[in-house]
Write a structure and sequence with these properties.
Elements lengths: L1 E2 L13 H13 L4 E3 L8 H10 L7 E6 L11 H15 L4 E7 L12 H12 L3 E8 L2 H10 L4 E5 L11 H6 L3 E5 L26 H15 L8 H10 L4 E4 L6 H9 L7 H14 L8
Parallel strand pairs: 1-2, 2-3, 3-4, 4-5, 5-6, 6-7, 7-8
Length: 296
C-alpha cells in the first residue's frame, strides 16, 4: 500500500508535483497496487496527482478515497455532501469509479447503521451503480470498528493500528466475522516507528501537536521497542512486518517522500516477523501503553 497524504502537501513537507507523480509510478513498478488518498490531502492535490500518475494504469490500481472530513467544503457527512465529494474525487482522480470509499473519521453516531440507515443505503446504491466498489469508514478505536462491523453493510475499514497504537486490534474478530477488509493507517506512528526520532527531536507543522512529555515518552518507548527486534532488522521493517503479521489486515499504507524510502517500505513485505517477536510487541503494548494510551 501507498499513503498519498504527502503528495505535494506543504503541511507535511511533501515532494513537488513531478516527484509525486514519479513516486506513484515507481510504486506501481515495484508491485504496489493500493493507493490511499482523501479530498483534503493537499487541498485536493493528492487526488489530482494520483489521477495524473495512474491515468494510463487505472486498472492496475486499487484506489481508496474518503468523504466527509477535511475536503474543500469542510466537514459534511450528509447525503448531498457524499455525492458532491465523490463527484469531485472522481474528477480529480480521472476515473469513473473508486475501489473503496470511506467515511473519513466520522462522528460515532454515523458508524451505527441503525442510526444512519439512509447514508448506508445511499452508499449501497452507489455500489450497485458501479461508482463505488466497496465502502466503509476510517476509525481510530476498537469500539468504533466493532460498531461499524456489526451494524452496517460495510466491506472495508481503515484502522489506526501500529506497535504503539493497538486498541483497534480488540475488534479485529468482529471485522473478520463480518467480512470487513482492514487497511492499517499511521503504520509508523507519524515517523516515530521509522526510528529517526529521539528525545532531542524538534517538530513543526502538524507534528508540533506533541508536548515535551509526549516526545520524551515516545523516545523511551522506541528504545524499548528496538530491544524486542531480531538482530539487524530496522525499526521501520519491524513496524510494518508487525502489522502485516495480523491475518485480518489486508494492506498497510506508509507514506514516502523519496523513491529510496518507498522501496525500503515495500521491502518490509518480503519477510515475516517471527511469531515470538509479534507476541513480544503485543505484550510490550499491554504493559507499557494500554492503560495510558499515547496521543496520536
Amino acid at each position: 500500500g501507498f499513503g498519498a497524504w504527502q503528495l505535494n502537501n506543504a503541511l507535511w513537507g511533501g515532494p513537488d508535483e513531478k516527484t509525486s507523480i514519479r513516486l506513484v509510478q515507481a510504486a506501481l513498478a515495484f508491485g504496489c497496487n493500493f493507493f490511499d488518498v482523501a479530498p483534503g490531502y493537499g487541498d485536493g492535490a493528492g487526488e489530482t496527482l494520483l489521477g495524473e500518475a495512474l491515468r494510463e494504469r487505472r486498472e492496475d490500481a486499487v484506489i481508496c478515497t474518503k468523504f466527509g472530513h477535511g475536503g474543500p467544503g469542510g466537514e459534511d457527512f450528509s447525503i448531498a455532501g457524499l455525492h458532491a465529494s465523490l463527484e469531485g474525487s472522481l474528477r480529480r482522480l480521472r476515473t469513473d469509479y473508486v475501489d473503496v470509499l470511506l467515511l473519513h473519521n466520522p462522528p460515532p453516531a454515523l458508524l451505527d447503521g441503525n442510526k444512519a440507515e439512509d447514508l448506508y443505503a445511499e452508499l449501497e446504491g452507489l455500489q450497485r451503480a458501479g461508482r463505488v466498489r466497496a465502502f466503509g469508514a476510517s476509525v481510530d478505536l476498537a469500539r468504533d470498528l466493532q460498531r461499524l462491523a456489526e451494524t452496517t453493510s460495510s466491506q472495508a475499514a481503515e484502522v489506526l493500528f501500529n506497535a504503539f497504537l493497538q486498541d483497534t486490534r480488540r475488534a479485529f474478530p468482529a471485522a473478520r466475522d463480518n467480512a470487513l477488509g482492514l487497511v492499517a493507517k499511521v503504520p509508523l506512528d507519524s515517523g516515530w516507528l521509522s526510528g529517526n526520532y529521539d528525545e532531542n527531536s524538534h517538530f513543526d507543522g502538524i507534528r508540533d501537536r506533541w508536548s515535551k512529555e509526549d516526545i520524551a515518552r515516545r523516545a523511551a518507548l522506541i528504545e524499548k521497542f528496538r530491544k524486542l527486534l531480531p538482530e539487524g532488522m530496522s525499526v521501520t521493517h519491524a513496524a510494518l512486518r508487525f502489522i502485516l503479521s495480523h491475518r485480518d489486515i489486508t494492506t498497510v499504507i506508509p507514506g514516502a517522500k523519496s523513491e529510496a524510502q518507498l522501496e525500503d517500505n515495500l521491502k518490509a513485505a518480503a519477510n515475516p516477523l517471527p511469531a515470538d517477536c509479534v507476541t513480544a510487541i503485543h505484550q510490550f503494548w499491554q504493559h507499557e501503553i494500554a492503560d495510558s494510551p499515547l496521543p496520536w
